[in-house]
Predict the structure.
Amino acid sequence: MSIEIHWQPAGALELFKSNLAAAPTWMPQIISDRAHDLGPLAIRVMQEEVRANLYTGALIDSISADYENNDSLVTVAPRAMRGKWDAGLILEFGTRPIPNAPWKPIAAWADFKGIPAAPVVIKIRTQGVSAHPFLDRTLDDFMPYLDDAAETALNEMLEHIFEGL
């Protein structure tokens, strides 16, 4: 012996379908809101990763977020340059030997670090600048924020889909 219960509120499927069909009107705003929440968080996380290699602070201060594709794409990156070279790429990947590396900026950096300049200049001229990767660490430290934002966005989307039910 069994009891069968069939529950289907009047108009529920139609309302669900209608709410889902309206997604193009409300979903972009949810995505934009989460993107604008994530941009500043990603900047702070990247700044913390770069801080270990602080010199003048120019690299940290140059980290910013750009929003594209109706705010569905956020690019966070340092914008500082060392001459014509991208300072973030130099920090991430290092360089090949720089035979004519200038003495004064290297000596200023060495003085800031409290080390003799001559060995540093020789090392840069013969071996290059050492890499200090920060992008993978930034992404690893940022993942909890991304997970939280995805969960928040999903909950907001479900609220829209099930609104009125």
Notes: The longest helix spans residues 23-51.
